[in-house]
Amino acid sequence: MEPINLDIHTHLVPIDAPGLEAIDGVRWDAAATALSVDGHKVGLKSLFAPDALIAWLDSNQIAQAWISAPPPLYRQHLPQAAAARWVDYVNHGLAGIAQRHADRLAPLPHLPIEHPDLSRDVATRTIATGQRWFSSPSGGPGRMLSDKSYDPLWRTLDDAAAFVLVHPGENDDPRLAPFYLTNLLGNPYETTVAIAHLIFGGVIARYPKITFCFAHGGGVAAMLAGRFEQGFQTDRPGISKSSPHPRALLKRLVVDCITHDTEALRLAASIFGQGHILFGSDWPFPMGLMHPHTQLSALTPAERKHLFHDNVAPVGAH
């Protein structure tokens, strides 16, 4: 079993019972080890157990992990004042968990991307402490990442040469309700929409020092790289020719390795660059890499060396 330096994509839910009592819409049942968020039960008990994550890291010879809030905690419907209280709870809790396991865990503070001004405030306060690593949903209700209202946030992150793990939230397309398609198809769709807006909206070109890292292999963006390029080359409506080519901008992005298919992962490496594929597990979710050494065993020794050891989060590398 080969050692893995870093898992950039794991999730934990901080539990502070007195703190949760002061927050509307969230209820902690200690006896049942269950959290209800806006009427929905967060079911995986390991999300509340940092020791379980540490044990899993040990069993898979993973030296360290970055922890972030899982999608049930995004609560993107909240108005800004309530969102500010909630994100302070989440980020303070993640930081506390990481402090208790400082040799193994580091937090990715959550950016409530549905509120651009609040996200910038969170980023500014966090950067002032020396932290430059964040996580963010892939978009917000009624707002696209190409929206100019995000420019102050991007500028703040760019000035700090920040790393942002972009993770899909909930897809509300009713056609995806059957067959678990909100996850199987909705997650990669939401991720790819975010990538498209950052490319065609000129965000990646204007803010080159931000390292945008996309979960789950970057959705289906690698498969669509040629289609994006063809739209650029043929002057499709709304596409500006003033930015670099989409293929060149895709090379500036970073993705994790969760594709569940060796050839899909190799396609991602060919589009984003071999050095821009980082190890991420999505622990503890079943759609992640809960058995990474087995699930990635079809990779060549050289590919595993790149993924497990050589590739590091290239903060500010572009």
Helix and strand topology:
Layout: E1 4-11, H1 17-21, E2 26-29, E3 34-37, E4 40-42, H2 50-59, E5 62-68, H3 80-100, E6 105-107, H4 116-127, E7 133-137, H5 151-159, E8 163-167, H6 181-184, H7 186-200, H8 203-206, E9 211-214, H9 221-233, H10 246-250, E10 254-256, H11 262-272, E11 277-278, H12 292-295, H13 301-310
Parallel strand pairs: 1-5, 5-6, 7-8, 8-9, 9-10, 10-11
Antiparallel strand pairs: 2-3, 3-4
Helix pairs in contact: 4-5, 9-11
Q: Outline of this structure?
A:
With 318 residues, the chain is an alpha/beta fold. The chain has 13 helices and 11 strands.
Q: How many separate structural domains?
A: 1
pLDDT < 50 runs, ≥5 residues: none
Beta-strand residue percentage: 15-25%
CATH class: Alpha Beta
> Largest sheet at a glance?
5 strands, parallel
Characterization of the model:
By secondary structure, this protein is α/β, with parallel strands linked by helices. It has one domain (4-310): Metal-dependent hydrolases (TIM Barrel, Alpha-Beta Barrel), CATH 3.20.20. The protein is built from 13 helices and 11 strands. It has helices at 17-21, 50-59, 80-100, 116-127, 151-159, 181-184, 186-200, 203-206, 221-233, 246-250, 262-272, 292-295, 301-310; strands at 4-11, 26-29, 34-37, 40-42, 62-68, 105-107, 133-137, 163-167, 211-214, 254-256, 277-278. The chain has a 5-stranded parallel sheet. The protein has a 3-stranded parallel sheet with strand order 1-5-6. Strands 2-3-4 form a 3-stranded antiparallel sheet. Strand 7, helix 5 (151-159) and strand 8 form a beta-alpha-beta unit. The longest helix is centred in the first third of the chain and has 21 residues, at 80-100. The radius of gyration is 19 Å and the shape is globular.
